Amino acid sequence: MKRKCVGAKWLLPAAVCAVAWGLAQDAWAFGGTENLATVGVLVLEEATREPVANVKVVGTLAGRTNPGGRWETLPKVHGTTDAQGRCTISGVSASGVVTVEISRVPLGYYRTSVEAARTFTTKRWKAWNPGNLVVTLAVQRVERPVPLHVRQVGRGDPRHAAKDVFPKENMLSYDLVKGDWLPPAGVGEQADVVFTRRFKESLMPITLPNGDKGEAYRDVLKVSFPGDGNGVVEHVAPAGAGLKIRTAPADGYVHDWESWDGVDLMAKRDTSYNANRCFSFRIRTKRDAQGKIESAHYGKIYGDLFFSMQMCPEKVAIAVPRFACYLNPTPLDRNLEWNLVNLCRTPGEYYRLEP
């Protein structure tokens, strides 16, 4: 069967941009004179660092059109990269601010950026024309996308879970293949991942800013992948990346991971949450007599392994584990590049189409 290449232009819901900042004082230093802002753009393939041609970029300029005048957005300017992956965008800016983003990529690429923000400044009282500055963006090549089971678990308002799904023993298991909690919360059959919550673990007494006595503590969610060879590997993806994990690693898996939220020794909020953290996982591992893996399923989790709390009718610090799961149904296949074909019949409220 002929496989269709995924059109990369609609894989990321958010624009990927590099932002160049100057000094707003430059505008009124010259009596509001509009300065020509010129910015070079270089687009590379993320892995090979080779230049990518025919990438369309757009620049948005902003500034004050007169001294003390109102801030306004000026017309957009467009460019297309050449064979060397380069182009130049230029236009009028009275403030030294320009935003550059990728608007369209050639077929066969995902749109992403490893440099989500750039900061350019000038010395006071100098005209802003960064003609020698280059914004570098990156795109990822579409290689071997496949259908996956994709399911969003526990998604909702992160501050207010609809209900507490944990049983009284504070331990809850999830079947990643069937895509459901084990009883009593669901009808899952095999515990691929086990969540154990620990409320308000005391670190030590502290003095609060108002002088009152308080306590440093953590609410902890322990995430375990039981069984020999099973576990997770942590990844921290670049901000703005679309394809965060292409292939699951062959080794390095650990059985347990802990997430927490609480108050530290300085009476400030303390959390393990990282918006750019994600994971690859291995489950249902079987070995032969020599210890070699003969069967296993691989997958990935986009976003941190975290939790939602319940506010009503009672406050429960950890009420629902929260994660987005991608599972390759083919045993021993470590390919996790998703082609947007979801094999899960009950995907839940997954809203971010990321490969």
Number of strands: 21
- Class by alpha and beta content: mainly beta
What characteristic shape results from the CA principal axes?
globular
If you average the pLDDT, what whole number results? 80
Distance, first to last CA: 21 Å
**Total DSSP helices:** 1
How does the major sheet shape up? 6 strands, mixed
Domain tally: 2
Secondary-structure element series: EHEEEEEEEEEEEEEEEEEEEE
Strand order of the largest sheet: 15-18-19-20-10-21
Helical fraction: under 10%
The gyration radius over C-alpha positions equals: 25 Å
User: Unreliable segments (pLDDT under 50, ≥5 consecutive)?
Assistant: 2-34, 115-127
The fraction of residues assigned to DSSP E strands is over 45%
What keywords describe this structure?
1 helix; mainly beta; 2 domains; 6-stranded antiparallel beta sheet; disordered N terminus; single chain; Immunoglobulin-like; 355 residues
Structure write-up:
The two termini are 21 Å apart. A six-stranded mixed sheet has the order 15-18-19-20-10-21, with no helix packed on it. Strands 12-11-13-14-16-17 form a six-stranded antiparallel sheet, with no helix packed on it. Strands 1, 3, 4, 5 and 7 form a five-stranded antiparallel sheet that branches. The chain folds into two domains: 8-141, Immunoglobulin-like; 146-342, no CATH class. It has 355 residues and is an all-beta fold. A hairpin with a 5-residue loop joins strand 19 and strand 20. It is built from one helix and 21 strands.
